[in-house]
Amino acid sequence: MVFITWRWMKLFCSLERTMRLWILSAFFRWQPATVTIGYFQKIKDEINIDHCRQQGYNVVRRPTGGKSVFHNQELTYSFITGIGNPLMDLDVVGSYQHISEGLLRGLNSLGIAAKRSGDPKKVTS
């Protein structure tokens, strides 16, 4: 299990640009507890930095949009691939099935008994 810090976040952001033919899925637990903020958020308008420091929380900017997320005692995953990856050059359902299978294998490798529920053929795009 990887305990992620801002350095790991920076590494995975850089991998995004070099992953044309590869797929990487990684699972993380955050230590210490961390607030991630979206790419376009203004820290001073959204986050009480003094409170985060007092509590010992890290604050990290994600390369994606969205709002702030507090990570503590959870399992987080990241899925990275490049534009033009032939494994993702499928319809929405086919891509979803590839991604889901990789996540299930990753969870199982961590000792988490994860399995698919339902019939994937019934999923429609």
Overall geometric form: globular
Give the H and E element order.
EHEEHHEEEH
Q: Please give the number of β-strands.
A: 6
Output the radius of gyration: 17 Å
| Strand-residue proportion | 15-25%
What does this structure look like?
The chain is of the alpha/beta class. The protein folds into 2 domains: 2-83, no CATH class; 90-125, no CATH class. Helices cover 31% and strands 22% of the residues. It has helices at 6-15, 43-46, 49-55, 92-109; strands at 2-4, 23-30, 34-37, 58-61, 69-71, 76-81. The strands form 2 sheets. A 3-stranded mixed beta sheet has the order 1-2-6, sandwiched between helices. Strands 4-3-5 form a 3-stranded mixed beta sheet, covered by helices on one side. β1 (2-4), α1 and β2 form a beta-alpha-beta unit. The protein is globular.
What's the SSE blueprint?
Layout: E1 2-4, H1 6-15, E2 23-30, E3 34-37, H2 43-46, H3 49-55, E4 58-61, E5 69-71, E6 76-81, H4 92-109
Parallel strand pairs: 1-2, 3-4
Antiparallel strand pairs: 2-6, 3-5
